[in-house]
Backbone:
């Protein structure tokens, strides 16, 4: 386990929720990938990544998320994100990642939109 | 220039230490009166420049260090990040489409982000050896 990140998995209304607390970097990305692969193995088609607003996210971490977004297309999954600060919303938009994974202001609004 | 207008620090070439430089730059920018969103822009730019210096410039060699110099002027903050290696070549703009289609590796966003987030950036060889990234962020510009 990496002390800089805590990742947990839950399920609400047929949506697999991956809650990420802490740094999102190349070093911590393995924990996120592991959670994604676990829910994928369990057959998840709708996945919500919940970030912590105060998290430090760098390009190494964003690359991990791009890898997950790429894999999700092959697996016919829908991935959404919530909990991002305004800064990282801007960064993800700047990079074009929001064309592939929509960002929602809250867990509730993301879950509602899945259905 | 007065001594308090120049801050220098050196970090080990170990991933994670970029946060030390990032927080130092953020504190300096806040003290200068930069808005919260510009401070966030600067934090990401400084972190990415340091990461490039650690990983690509210094090749994660623990015997090397990354030097960061903050120079405070009335209307701008300049941040220089120096490595001891070959530096990072200016690479073409990454394509999210190619990365999602697995035609490119998902990494390679650091320089793109730096260019987007600061007002001026230059990648230059350092006369004393290694390379330096010079970034400038202005108080009155977005």
Residues:
């Amino acid at each position: 386990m990496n002390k800089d990140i805590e990742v947990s998995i839950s399920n609400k209304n047929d949506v697999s929720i991956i809650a990420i607390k802490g740094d999102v970097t190349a070093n911590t990305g393995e924990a996120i990938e592991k959670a994604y692969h676990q829910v994928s193995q369990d057959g998840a088609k709708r996945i919500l990544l919940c970030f912590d607003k105060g998290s430090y996210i760098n390009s190494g971490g964003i690359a991990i998320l791009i890898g997950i977004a790429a894999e999700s297309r092959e697996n016919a999954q829908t991935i959404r994100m919530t909990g991002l600060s305004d800064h990282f919303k801007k960064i993800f938009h700047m990079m074009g990642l929001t064309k592939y994974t929509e960002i929602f202001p809250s867990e509730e609004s993301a879950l509602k939109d899945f259905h | 220039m007065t001594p308090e207008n120049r801050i220098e620090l050196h970090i080990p070439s170990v991933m994670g230490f970029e946060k030390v430089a990032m927080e130092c730059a953020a504190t300096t920018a806040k003290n200068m009166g930069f808005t919260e969103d510009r401070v966030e822009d600067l934090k990401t730019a400084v972190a990415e420049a340091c990461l490039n210096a650690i990983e690509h410039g210094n090749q994660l060699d623990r015997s090397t260090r990354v030097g960061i110099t903050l120079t405070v002027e009335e209307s701008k903050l300049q941040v220089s990040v120096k490595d001891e290696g070959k530096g990072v070549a200016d690479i073409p703009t990454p394509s999210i489409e190619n990365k999602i289609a697995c035609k490119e590796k998902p990494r390679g966003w650091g320089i793109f982000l730096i260019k987007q987030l600061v007002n001026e950036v230059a990648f230059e060889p350092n006369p004393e050896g290694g390379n330096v990234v010079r970034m400038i962020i202005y108080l009155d510009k977005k």
Observations:
- Chain B touches chain A at residues 15-16, 18-19, 22, 37, 40-41, 44, 47-48, 51, 94, 96-97, 99-102, 105-110, 112-113, 116 (CB under 8 Å).
- Chain B has four helices and five strands.
- The two ends of chain B are 26 Å apart (CA to CA).
